[in-house]
Amino acid sequence: MENISRYTIIFISLILLQILVFNNIPAIGMISPYIYLAFILILPVSISPILLLLLAFLSGVLVDLSITSYGVHSFSTVMMAALRPTILKILAPRIGYESNNTPLLSHFGTSWALKYITLCVAIHHISLYFCFTFTFSDLGFTFIRMLLNIALTVFVIILSEIFVFKK
Questions:
Q1: Residue 26 and residue 93: Cα distance in Å, rounded?
Q2: Hey, which end of the chain has fewer CB within 10 Å, N or C?
Q3: How far are the Cα atoms of 26, 31, 96, 100, 118 from residue 121, in angstroms, in the given order?
């Protein structure tokens, strides 16, 4: 029960941060960190795949509703969540994961966390940007914007893991 309430607080906090703060920072301009992805990234390794996809869909829908983006965040977040188990298998330590492990920087180290977070965020952003643009025109501009947004999102998530999601 403690874990459910902890994850509920994290979920609500990250969604509200995304909607109320990060979606409304005019100084950044055309890029914005998607901190709400941290919720999907920190869920336990042993979470049910169906529950993982449902939580990803719910978080994506809430962000979509806040900025009227017509499902692109839902699609991209579900895509990331669907590929998360494969990424975890690829990056699995030699001894494997314990069932109650949470994929955090403090558990597996900086190198592992950086690979994990970057791969997941890249999957999300690639699908997000191509759903948003739905064209290959201005591919260079879209690619640069996507890379900047991936870097900013990874940076913000790593900072949040260092300062907020400690053991």
A1: 41
A2: N
A3: 22, 14, 23, 23, 5
- Could you read off the pLDDT of 79-116 as tens digits, one per residue? 999 999 999 889 877 777 766 677 777 777 888 889 99
Domains and CATH numbers, the chain: 2-163 (1.10.1760)
From first CA to last CA, the distance across the chain in angstroms is: 18
User: In sequence order, which ranges of 23-138 are alpha helices (DSSP H)?
Assistant: 37-42, 49-67, 72-90, 105-108, 110-133
Distance CA 91, CA 118 (A): 12
The answer to whether 76 and 60 are in contact (CB under 8 A) is yes
Per-residue pLDDT at 131: 84
DSSP per residue over 126-157, as a string? HHHHHHHH-SSTTHHHHHHHHHHHHHHHHHHH
Question: How is residue 133 written in tokens?
Answer: 């643009």
Q: Could you give the angle at the alpha carbon of 119 between the alpha carbons of 139 and 82, nearest 5°?
A: 100
Q: What is the rounded CA–CA span in Å between residue 142 and residue 162?
A: 30
Contact present, 14 and 46 (Cβ < 8 Å) = no
At 115-151, the pLDDT tens digits run 999 999 999 999 998 887 766 677 787 788 889 999 9
